[in-house]
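anyone seen this seq b4? input:
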Amino acid sequence: MESPLEARLCIYMPSYNAREFIHATVNRIPWASLPPDMHYELLFVDNASTDGTPDVIADICTELEERGIRTHTWLHQVN
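predicted toks r here
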């Protein structure tokens, strides 16, 4: 069970048609500089991108989770 005083960091990353630069943006996060005992995660919030951004986000999530970084996505879709 996690302590209520545990250090936490959640990074929210909103996007809209960000396919061309979202991977570079994620790579600028200084993961190695974060304390090893800190709980951190990345939350992507996509606003109905039409350029394939959700596919890139899925690839990024896979890469990060393989490194032990928790990710979440919220994808808004136009009906």
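Strands lie at 8-15, 39-47, 70-76. The radius of gyration is 14 Å. kinda curious what u guys think
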